[in-house]
């Protein structure tokens, strides 16, 4: 039984650190840039809404996609939350058991209780520690993809566990798009490859893992942005809010954006206290905070000097259908939005009260 528990623990640990795998082979080949006419969207409404929510920044020089946070990662974050509760509950049970065994004086049962207590720390304490370390260290594990329209290039950071992120700047004409069928779950994902013409081997792969979006629509969106005029890019302004989380020093502001995306971006644009937003902060705030941490910690290629050197836009007259950053959002980014603080601090406080109250209840039962 313990082996099965440990196996599941390791599985969800891997899901939390679901690093981009840059070794995928080319499977179902799509069109190359500029070679064919751009196809129409297959699921126009759903795709436009999803892509508009995924847009990080859209301007005449570049478009930046948020890192994709798929259901595997969300399940992993949910497990860390659940294990934190179980760890708090079981800690007092283990202490009571060890104290009872010590009182009886049996050396065999003493070592048995000590072994079970250590196993409890390893099983229920490891995942919360991993989550805490990520919140503290803010290591980059996920891709932000920059599409440079003016210079016809794509840039991103390649993340590796034991070294600093490696910056890549690729010519758009060298990209080959393919669709890969995920082996674990029945869904398709878009991959962008660079192939060595001499060896016909893949040099680089950018994996855009998104279970909620058709890869054909995603590739059509990318091609439309790079190859066509601005008015042909189908962005819905109700969803396409300017959310430059790379400049945000506030985890709460990034968590607000994560929450807003799940609500389709129709509420909370001014980071105000809405009933549903506050209730969500009281119930699943950990998931939104974890996602906000990813937005903060993922290395942003738009800030790289090589990308900055290529930017020409003066910040006025954006031709794309996207809402600008409001003054309230700027205040939230600088951790100066009072309404946003009230919502998140009160929501987190209620979570803490539930957690401590449940532990006190367990202690009362033991007593």
Proportion of beta-strand residues: 5-15%
Instruction: Count up the helices.
Output: 11
Return the structural class.
alpha+beta
Largest sheet: number of strands, sense, barrel closure: 5 strands, antiparallel
| Helical amount | 40-55%
Unreliable segments (pLDDT under 50, ≥5 consecutive)?
A: 1-23
Care to count the β-strands?
A: 9
* Secondary-structure element order, N to C: HEHEEHHEEEEEEHHHHHHH
> Going across the major beta sheet, what is the strand order?
2-3-4-5-6
Distance between the termini: 29 Å
Average pLDDT reading: 78
Description:
This protein has 367 residues and is an alpha+beta fold. Helices cover 49% and strands 14% of the residues. The chain is built from eleven helices and nine strands. The chain has helices at 2-16, 44-54, 71-104, 107-137, 215-227, 251-262, 275-283, 285-297, 305-308, 327-333, 338-366, and strands at 28-29, 55-58, 62-65, 145-148, 153-160, 163-171, 175-181, 188-195, 202-208. The strands form two sheets. A five-stranded antiparallel beta sheet has the order 2-3-4-5-6. Strands 1-7-8-9 form a four-stranded antiparallel beta sheet. Helix 3 runs antiparallel to helix 4, helix 3 packs parallel to helix 11 (338-366) and helix 7 (275-283) runs parallel beside helix 11 (338-366). The longest helix has 34 residues, at 71-104. The relative contact order is 0.16.
Write the layout of secondary structure elements.
Layout: H1 2-16, E1 28-29, H2 44-54, E2 55-58, E3 62-65, H3 71-104, H4 107-137, E4 145-148, E5 153-160, E6 163-171, E7 175-181, E8 188-195, E9 202-208, H5 215-227, H6 251-262, H7 275-283, H8 285-297, H9 305-308, H10 327-333, H11 338-366
Antiparallel strand pairs: 1-7, 2-3, 3-4, 4-5, 5-6, 7-8, 8-9
């Amino acid at each position: 039984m313990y082996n099965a528990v440990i196996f599941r623990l390791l599985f969800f640990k891997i899901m939390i650190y679901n690093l981009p795998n840059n070794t995928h082979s080319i499977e179902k080949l799509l069109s190359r840039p500029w070679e064919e006419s751009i196809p129409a969207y297959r699921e126009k409404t759903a795709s436009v809404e999803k892509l508009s929510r995924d847009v990080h920044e859209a301007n005449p020089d570049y478009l930046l996609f948020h890192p994709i946070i798929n259901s595997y990662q969300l399940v992993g974050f949910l497990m860390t939350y659940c294990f934190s509760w179980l760890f708090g509950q079981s800690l007092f049970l283990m202490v009571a058991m060890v104290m009872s065994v010590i009182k009886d004086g049996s050396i065999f049962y003493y070592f048995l209780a000590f072994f079970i207590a250590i196993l409890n720390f390893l099983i229920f304490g490891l995942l919360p520690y991993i989550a805490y370390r990520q919140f503290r260290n803010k290591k980059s594990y996920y891709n932000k993809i920059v599409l440079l329209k003016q210079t016809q290039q794509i840039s991103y950071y390649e993340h590796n566990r034991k070294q600093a992120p490696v910056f890549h700047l690729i010519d758009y004409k060298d990209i080959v798009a393919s669709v890969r069928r995920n082996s674990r779950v029945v869904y398709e994902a878009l991959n962008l490859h660079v192939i060595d013409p001499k060896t016909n081997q893949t040099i680089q792969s950018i994996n855009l893992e998104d279970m909620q979006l058709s890869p054909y629509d995603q590739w059509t969106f990318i091609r439309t942005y790079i190859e066509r005029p601005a008015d042909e890019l189908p962005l819905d302004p109700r969803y396409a809010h300017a959310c430059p989380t790379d400049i945000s020093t506030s985890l709460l502001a990034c968590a607000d954006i994560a929450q807003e995306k799940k609500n389709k971006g129709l509420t909370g644009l001014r980071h105000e206290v809405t009933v549903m937003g506050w209730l969500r902060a009281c119930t699943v705030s950990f998931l939104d905070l974890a996602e906000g941490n990813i937005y903060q910690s993922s290395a942003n290629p738009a800030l790289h000097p090589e990308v900055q050197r290529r930017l020409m836009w003066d910040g006025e007259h954006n031709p794309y259908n996207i809402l600008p950053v409001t003054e309230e959002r700027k205040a939230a980014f600088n951790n100066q939005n009072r309404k946003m603080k009230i919502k998140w601090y009160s929501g987190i406080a209620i979570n803490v009260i539930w957690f401590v109250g449940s532990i006190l209840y367990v202690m009362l039962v033991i007593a």
